[in-house]
Amino acid sequence: MTEPIDVVVVGAGLSGLQAALTLNEAGRSVLVLEARDRVGGKTYSVQRPDGKGVQEMGAAWLNDSSQSMVWSYCQKFGLTPVVQNIQGLVASEDDDGDCQLFPFGGMPEFGKGVLDNITALRDYVETASLDPKTFEHPRRAELDNISFEKFCKDAGAGTKALQTARVWCRGTTGQDPGDVSALAYLEVCRGASGLIKLRYDGKDGAQNLRLREGTQAISINMAKLPPAGTIKLSTPVTSISTAPEKDTFSITTSNGLPFTARKVIVSIPSPAYKNITFDPPLPAPYQHHVSNVRYGCFVKYICTFKTPFWRRKGACGLTQSFRGPMNHCRDTSVDQDGNYALTCFLCSGPGREWLALGAEHRKEAVLRQLSSLFETSFEEVVGEFSDSLTSEWMDDPWAGWGCPFAIAPPGVMDAERILEVAAGDAGGLYFVGTELTDEWRGYMEGALRSGKKGAEVVLHSLR
C-alpha cells in the first residue's frame, strides 16, 4: 500500500501555494491539486490584445510597508513595482450626473455642511474599525445584527454621506451597505489598519503599488519553488472523505485520480466548496458560513487607450460615481510599455444592469461616463479607445462564481465566529484563504498570511 501524503492542498492560489511552501520547508510531503490549467487563483494577469504589457483581471494592488509577505515575494522574484498615480485631479459624479474635478486628497464641492457630515462619517467608521471593543461582546453582536447602512444612518449620515459609504462598500465588496453586516465591513477595515488606508492610493495605502509583470507573476514564481510534481493542474477535486482507518483522507478528482493524505488544506473560496462532496459533511459552522456568505456583483471592465487622455485634463485617473453604471475607476497604466488603461469597476445593482446590455452598449455606456467624468468629448474618448478586457469571475465555478471575496450579510458572523473556527482542526480538514483572515481580507497579503498560519496549525497537528 502506498504511504499517504502528509498533506493535500486543494487549490493553487496564493493561500494554497503558501501553505504548500510552508509545509515543504518543514520537511513534509505535499501535493497541490488545482482545478484550472494555471496557478494563481484570483491573481490573473493577461496580455493586452495589442501586446503592450499586462492588465489585471483579478488582484492588482499591494504596498511595500504593511503588506510584508507579498512585498517580500516581489523582492525575491525581482518584480517591478509601479506606483499608483495620484498626481492630479480626482473625478466625481453626483447622482444627477453632474461631474467635477478636485485635487487628490480633497473632496467634491458639496457645501460645508455636507462635507462636514461626510468627514464625520469617515472618522466614525475609522475610529470604530480601530477600536478593539468594537469586536468584543456586547458590541460585536450588536454590529453583526445590523447592516453597514444602518450603522451609517445611526451615526447621523445624510444623503451624500450615505452615497459616499455606498461607493466605499461597493468598491470593496461589490455589494450595497444595506446587504453587508456592519461587523463584517468594519472587520475588513480593521484588517487594513482602518478605512482610510483601505481606500487610500498613496504611500502605505491598500492601492499604492502594482506590478509591471502582473501579480500572477508572484504565483507563477512561487510554483517553481517546491519539488517538481508537487502541483497538479487541471485536476479538480470532486470529493474528500475520511478513510475507514479514520486517520487518513481519500481525495478523488474529476479525471479519476485518487489520492490519500493524512491532512487536507482547502484553500479555495468558500462559495466553491459546493463543487466538492465532503464525507462526513462539513462541520456546522462551515456549513453555516458557506450557506450565508455571498459575493456581490464586481466586474472589471478594463479600457485600453492610445494615450492617457485624462491626464491632459489634469486628472490622475481616479474616479467615483454616485450614479453608475461605473462605481469607480483607476489608472492602471504602465507608461514605459505604452500600456495606457483605465480599470473601471461595475458593481452591485448598476453593474448587473450593465451586464444585461450587449457588448457594444456596454462599451458605449462606460466611454460616455468617462467622457463626462473627465470633461472630454465622447468623440475624443472613442478616438483614443483601443480595446477592452472584461473579468469573467461570475462565470467561474472554481472562484465560486464571483470576486473578490465573499462577505456576510447581517446576523451571520457572531453566530459562527468563522475565523476562530477556521484557525482550528475540523477533523483533519483545514481551511485557508483571503476571506478567512483578520489581516488584509480580500487582498493578496491576506491570502498569504492565511496560508502560512493554516500550514503552521497543520504542522503542529502532524507532530
Automatic annotation (TrEMBL):
Any Pfam family the entry gives: Amino_oxidase
Swiss-Prot/TrEMBL cofactor(s): FAD
Catalytic activity: a secondary aliphatic amine + O2 + H2O = a primary amine + an aldehyde + H2O2
Keywords: FAD, Flavoprotein, Oxidoreductase
EC nos: 1.4.3.-
InterPro entries given in the database record: Amino_oxidase, FAD/NAD-bd_sf, Flavin_amine_oxidase, Flavin_MAO
Domain (Amine oxidase) ranges: 14-459
SUPFAM superfamilies (UniProt xref): FAD-linked reductases, C-terminal domain, FAD/NAD(P)-binding domain
Enzyme class label: oxidoreductase
Family of this protein: Belongs to the flavin monoamine oxidase family.
PANTHER family xrefs: AMINE OXIDASE
Protein name, per record: Amine oxidase
Species: Zasmidium cellare
